[in-house]
Design a protein that fits this description.
By secondary structure, the protein is mainly alpha-helical. 75% of the residues lie in helices and 0% in strands. It contains four helices and no strands. The longest helix is centred in the middle third of the chain and has 28 residues. The chain starts with a helix and ends in an 8-residue tail after the last helix.
Length: 129
């Protein structure tokens, strides 16, 4: 998987989705729903940026490709589940989508703690592809 390219696409989407929210949804969502939408955009953008950074770490020898794949997959999953469920909740008002959000949050947490674990251990101890 070309995680760097996917990260660039996700970053572009975050900007576009954020602009759509700021301009296209202004006055259409109440304050509560707009807050949820903005939170989704914020987490989407930060974690897509993290995905871009993590995808570069194997190129500089700080992380094995296999380790980066795990972390990137978890970050991508988190964006889809966390931000995706919040976008859907904000736009539809269907509160059951909020039950999906914590799974995305867990994927984010696993990604960052797994990254920290592997960085503490050093590149030579990571899983080999």
């Amino acid at each position: 998987m070309n995680w760097s390219a996917l990260a660039a696409i996700l970053l572009g989407l975050a900007v576009g989705i954020g602009a759509f929210g700021a301009h296209g949804l202004k006055g259409r969502l109440d304050t509560y729903a707009m807050g949820i939408y903005e939170k989704a955009v914020l987490y989407h953008f930060f974690h897509a940026l993290g995905l871009l950074i993590v995808s570069i770490l194997p190129r500089v020898g700080a992380l094995s490709r296999a380790s980066a794949n795990w972390v990137c997959a978890l970050l991508f999953t988190g964006i889809v589940l966390f931000s995706g469920s919040l976008y859907t909740l904000a736009l539809t008002g269907v509160t059951t989508w909020g039950a999906v959000t914590p799974f995305g949050g867990l994927a984010f947490l696993w990604a960052w703690f797994l990254l920290a674990w592997w960085l503490f251990r050093g590149a030579s101890t990571h899983p080999k592809p």
